Amino acid sequence: MAAQLPDMAATLTPDAQQPLPSLVSSRRLKWQKTARALRLWVPAGFLLLLLFLCFVWPYIYSIPPGNSGSILDASEPPFSPGHWLGTDPNGVDLFSMLVYGGQVSFEISLAVTAFGAIVGGTIGLTAGYFGGWTDSVLSRIVDVLIAFPALVLVLAVAEVLQPSETHLIWALSFFSVPVFARITRGSVLTIRTLPFITAARLTGTSNRKIIFKHVLPNVLPSVVTFSLLGIGLIVILEGAVDFLGLGIQIPQPSWGAMIAKGQNVLTAEPQYVLIPSIVLLIFVMSLNLLGDALRERWGVR
Amino acid sequence: MALAQQVQLQREPGARTDFARRVTGSPALQLVGRRLLTAIPVLLGVTFLTFVVMNLIPGNPAQLILGINASPSAIAKLDAQLGLNHPFWDRYWIWLDGLLHGNLGIAYSNQQSVNSDIAQFLPTTCWLLLYTLVASLTLGIIVAVLAARKPNGIFDRISLAVSMIGLSVAPYALALVLIYVFSVRLGWFPTISNSLGDNPLTAIRALTLPAAAIGFPLFAIYTRLLRADIVEQMQREDYIVTAKAKGVSPWRVLVRHATRNSLFTLITLVALNLGTLIGAVAIIEPIFSLPGIGAELISAININDLPLIEGIVVVFALVTVAGNLLADLLYTVLDPRIRYGRAAS
Amino acid sequence: MSPVVSTDNALLEVEDLRVAFAVGGREVRAVDGVTYKVEAGRTLAIIGESGSGKTVGCRAIMGLLPTGTEISGSARLRGTELIGLSDGQLRKHRGSEMAMVFQDPARSLNPTMRVGKQITEAITTHRKVSKSDARDQAIELLRLVRIPAPERRFHEYPHQLSGGMRQRVVIAMALACRPKLLIADEATTALDVTTQAQIMELLLELQQELDMALIFISHDLGLAASYADEVVVMYAGKIVEQAPAKRLFGAGGTVKMRYTRALLDAIPHLERPAHTDLPVVTGRPPDPTMLPVGCSFAPRCPSAADDCTAKAPALTEHAPGHRWACWHPCENGGTA
Fold it and tell me: What would the mean pLDDT of B227-249 be, rounded to a whole number?
């Protein structure tokens, strides 16, 4: 009987043997793939470009200083010779101001975010994992810090310490540490209830091992993606402090101070506000887009 | 309480005491009580931290007020008058005591009570915050629901792009751009407003641009999260499939089922972002010269008026804590799972 | 497409149903050419592992799959072709003529909406009735599914009911407009065994009372043996065996497919000697994005031969009423 069947089957229903043609268009499948890759690499590319312009470019190609200029060059429009983006009313080159201000912004935001992630992350991890009194105490402290609106907190601390780059980093950390602590704690709490953690504890694995081998790798994706968002937030926050004149002091350039100075001539020459604002926007947007793309890749919620 | 339950209670006499027991033992009230309890140490911590930070400022406040050329005896006299010669804990206790009685102290700069100073400027800020919150929430919900209707459709993609800009823009930069476009170029709104004017129309005109500057990033956050939540409900939750299987129209499924349940997340989000909302006034008000407490804080900082700074900062923080608490309570009240608990079945 | 003779009293006729969608750049063929029919008053069991396409197929008929899914083939409900209808048109049938009950009653009910409201919603979506009439009908429905104190339950929230009662509520919602076809998708899987039996009995009683066609989807062959008239076994999106239940189970049962045989063998019996290994099917279901060329079950089949991996066998009616797709079917329904 088995020998006859294949022939019968072939004559009765010829289609059933070949794989049925694809329903979903291959074009759609291909587009899904490319779109995904673009979402990651375009913002990453922009970020790399900005980083390059701020940290590499000035050393390959000499650009005018960012904190002084000749009064003869005052208020040059963009695309003038020798000054790509023009100069401000004091003759300081705009592009250089952006570059050097960018250096400071990058450094500060990176330092603050790293500090927040490490210190805040540790606090959150400890609180979330060990629970009990540790959690209660640590969480209360974090709650107290978070109760202050970010800007207000930073301003208050900056007010106490004299304005300088290092002090600004301390002030901003007052904000980033509790926020990271909250985030990691939440993440750890979710993971701690997962069955495989319970299984590890039941088999007598030491807490240290569980934390480093199981909890940490699962918390890392959300911490990293949040860090990207955090850098953007810190840059904006730092810009706000500079805008108010309480952060980086002139003649040191900073994007916030540039925007603040541009306020005075907004009516007649809006580019002094628009140009640094757009650069700031591009920077933060690239960070956010990159964070989104990574979150998509790594399946973080 | 449901009609049927009320009717039943009247029929069963023993049920009345049962009801009373159920209310006091109700999980909702217990949750509320617990949250209130945990809020107290936070509130205390807030006052303490503010006081500590403010008192770390180097230099003698009395000297700052009287100037460099003041005589030592004058400084000592002012010291005593301001109570600055007492030890730290005493000063904290005095200040806290005053705080609990609603008295925030005397400002250095104008010798007026901080209370009256805040009271003078608070209304403007409140109006601004109200306007911002209402506008950004309303717009946020509408846009999110429309976007979730067709995920990855044209409206959705545009709203996502706009949200991305909103998330990435700095409020102060946005404020200036708005001023340039709508005030300088188009003349629709005033650039600076020293007061809100005497009628609602002038108030709205004065507050719209500042509200937009603070509200646009907020709107972006709300839209993004709400849309994501609604879409997730629509795609993953079984009760949505059930509703569709009943033949319910897509709009009703979207609004009555999915969005209704996503609003919980939104409330939490609004509460969490209360700090951002409130803090933003500190930078936006000065730009528009609005007479609010944010602007007052900045000017207080610029003249080193410690009690004033202290007072305003504490008020900010206390309001944030209160807001978070309120959101928690709201959540508890709205979620029937918490409100009704598990009845014996 | 082979012509299928349509029987007059067939309530639902499904012909060559195919469902595919794109995931992460690859195509998933969830349902790959499925044909069956159900008559009024009869019970069809669709059995398969997770990923076999049993749920997706029925959801496709109901129109409950997300947009972006490609569906082709035919599904006729009382003569009306369902595949290809717009959502607006399908909605007229959904909930009124054909209804579905889902797996997890804890999640199928809206947690923030009172139970009664959810039932009246099912009624008012299709009929124009006053609020009080809808309420009365809903309470009647709760009574129909044997829920005690229906007037009180009407005002409660889902979390206030037990699992079995919640499932009864879901059934009540499904029956709100007296559908002609009821699909129970793993309706008892999330319940404990006692409740399971109760719900199945309830479904069958209701089927008799309302003269409905019942399709129940499950991975439990035992349920099919106890309650079904006709059984369809699915694997990797295709039907691999299809026969009246009497033919497959019980004494003298002639199970032809290795897969069905394996599923049957995996059911623990009391008569089996103690401490013997349970004969489970080794391996896992195939990755739907990378289906093998030949028979999809071949990698896991104990009696797979070369022709099995070379060409996929077609589903053919080798015996009256009994179809299977296998090059080397079991002999005499035994463990050959």
Answer: 89
Q: Is residue A78 within 8 Å of residue A272, measured between CB atoms? A: no
- What residues in C contact B247, CB-CB < 8 Å? 91-96, 122, 125-126
pTM equals 0.80
Size of interface B-C (CB pairs under 8 A): 94
What is the C-alpha separation between A168 and A159, in angstroms, rounded?
10
- Asked if C122 and B246 come within 8 Å (Cβ–Cβ), the reply is yes
Token readout for C248 is 């497959």
- Distance between CA atoms of residues A118 and A76, nearest Å: 45
| Residue C92 C-beta-side C-alpha neighbours within 13 Å | 7
CB pairs under 8 A between A and C: 61
Q: Is B187 on the interface with C (CB under 8 A)?
A: no
Q: Is residue A65 part of a domain?
A: no
Out of A202-216, B296-310, C118-132, give the one with best mean pLDDT: C118-132
**How much of chain C is in helix, strand and coil states, percent to nearest 5?**
35, 25, 45
Instruction: Quote the number of domains for chain A.
Output: 1
Contact A12 C291 (CB under 8 A): no
Tens-digit pLDDT profile for residues A25-52: 667 777 778 888 888 999 999 999 999 9
Residue A181: give its domain's CATH number: 1.10.3720.10
Which chains does chain C touch, 3 or more C-beta pairs < 8 A?
A, B
- Does residue A45 fall inside a structural domain? no
| Contact yes or no for C327 and A15 at CB 8 A | no
Cα C40–chain centre separation: 16
- Cβ pair A151:B46 closer than 8 A: no
Give the amino acid at B105.
G
Domain around A115:
83-298
Residues ≥6 apart with Cβ < 8 Å to C146: C168, C202
Q: Quick check: A299 contacting C, CB < 8 Å?
A: no
Q: For a pLDDT cut of 70, what percent of chain C falls above it?
A: 91
Residues 227-246 of B with CB under 8 A from C: 235, 237-239, 241-246
